[in-house]
Specification:
Distance between the termini: 39 Å
Strand content: 15-25%
Structural class: alpha+beta
CATH superfamily of the largest domain: Histidine kinase-like ATPase, C-terminal domain
Helix content: 25-40%
Largest sheet: 6 strands, antiparallel
Radius of gyration: 23 Å
CATH architecture of the largest domain: 2-Layer Sandwich
CATH class of the largest domain: Alpha Beta
Oligomer: single chain
Strand order of the largest sheet: 3-2-1-6-5-4
Number of strands: 16
Order of helices and strands: HHEEEHEEEHHHEEEHEEEHEEHHEE
Number of helices: 10
Number of domains: 2
């Protein structure tokens, strides 16, 4: 059996590719330090009463520091810093005691054997383009009370001063071809997500026309209604939580019951491309859990997987959830189909690539253009997404980190 993907310890912004490209255009972003940035870090340390303050730059797989005061820090992997979480929002991130926050309780910088950091307060560094590329933060080895609103306001202004200094020189002219390609591909992804339920809706209505006079088929009516629901939710989600200028999608996280989401998905009865009604069953070993996430986005990801399985997969489709090593949550959609030889599973995980050529839609095994969107939504939650071809079935697997089941009900995610 293939080895499981490692569970990531940090979320990935929905617009990660564009965010990384924006780093290349920051004129003052060099490894050479300047006294100005050290001064800002010293002011941050004094403001927050912390032992350490730094300006971090979050790259693809790691982060480095434009300035550090109070501790010797060198470049490190992205999962051993805290700032990968800070860049997920325009708001400050404050953690009074890192050891008591489920997101960081097992973090290598927090546990015994590391520096045992306890307090973190940081603000994201936001470019004039709207992309967040790093943070200005204070860290201490003892817990603190949360900063006052005034202190956070000053910290935010210091962060803006960092960005102003880095952007002071006019950026060099750069080609935007890759951005245009990313935009056109994103449009293709959303177009697919709209066309798939429309195709199902159209097929359901055609079949209803053929049965006029024989009584309405409730399954077809349900399928048509659910397709309309899918389109409405998709459009409302994109409008409510997208930033057109940066291609960003933000989460609206809250506590909910995973079982309720799975029950809704398992209730789906839709016609496939051949017009035959397919149903979705809840796996016998599926569990329920109180979980902290964006239920609309997770529902959208599961819905895309279900629609792919119904349209391209085998006759039997199931959905379920279970606990895996370390208390992580694994959700999968299985169908009894097989993946064609033309599908390159390795390419599935590349940004906006779908099983090979983007023009190849007839994947016949549960794969479709909705999968890169699903991958983006899962990574936005700090999780991992995998499609696994097994001898008698295809599994689309979503893994979410254990801390999402350990957040207290009063946690606001700040």
């Amino acid at each position: 059996m293939p080895a499981r993907l490692p569970i990531r310890t940090y979320p990935i912004p929905f617009n990660e590719e564009a965010r990384l490209r924006s780093l290349l255009g920051i004129p003052g972003l060099t490894a050479q330090n300047e006294a100005l940035f050290d001064s800002i870090c010293r002011a941050t340390r004094e403001l927050l009463g912390c032992q350490v303050a730094h300006i971090s730059i979050v790259e693809d797989e790691g982060q480095w520091y434009k300035s550090v005061v109070g501790y010797d820090l060198g470049p490190m992997p992205r999962d051993t810093g805290f700032c990968a979480h800070t860049i997920m929002s325009d708001q400050p991130m404050v953690v009074p005691d890192l050891s008591k926050d489920p997101r960081f309780a097992r973090h290598p910088m927090v546990v015994e054997g590391g520096p045992q950091a306890r307090y973190y307060a940081g603000v994201p560094l936001v470019l004039s383009s709207g992309h967040r590329f790093g943070s200005l933060c204070g860290i201490d080895l003892v817990p603190h009370e949360a900063p006052s609103e005034r202190e956070l306001s000053i910290l935010t202004e210091l962060g803006r001063a960092v960005v102003a200094a880095l952007e002071a020189r006019p950026p060099e002219t750069t080609a935007h071809k890759s951005d245009e390609i990313a935009k056109s591909t994103f449009i293709a992804l959303i177009g697919h997500e709209l066309r798939t339920p429309l195709t199902i809706l159209f097929g359901s209505l055609q079949l209803l026309e053929l049965t006029l006079g024989k009584g309405a088929n409730p399954k077809l009516l349900t399928g048509a209604r659910k397709s309309v629901d899918h389109i409405i939710k998709l459009v409302e989600t994109i409008i409510a939580f997208s930033d057109a200028s940066t291609g960003e999608l933000r989460l609206n996280e809250r506590h909910c019951d995973l079982g309720d989401i799975l029950d809704e998905v398992a209730a789906m009865q839709l016609p496939g491309k051949d017009g035959a009604i397919k149903t979705v069953a809840l796996a016998d070993d599926s569990i329920d859990a109180r979980i902290y996430l964006d239920p609309d986005q997770i529902w959208l990801a599961l819905d895309a997987l279900i629609l792919n399985a119904i349209n391209h997969g085998g006759a039997d489709v199931t959905v379920g959830a279970r606990l895996v090593d370390g208390g992580h949550i694994e959700i999968d959609v299985c169908d009894s189909g097989s993946i064609g030889d033309h599908v390159d599973l390795a390419e599935l995980y590349a940004p906006f690539v779908v099983g090979g050529n983007i023009d190849n839609r007839d994947t016949r095994g549960g794969l479709g253009l909705g999968l890169p969107l699903t991958r983006k939504l899962v990574e936005l939650h700090g999780g991992e997404f995998e499609v696994r071809a097994e001898p008698d079935r295809t599994r689309a697997i979503i893994r979410l980190p254990a801390w999402r089941t350990q957040m207290t009900e009063t946690k606001t995610g700040e």
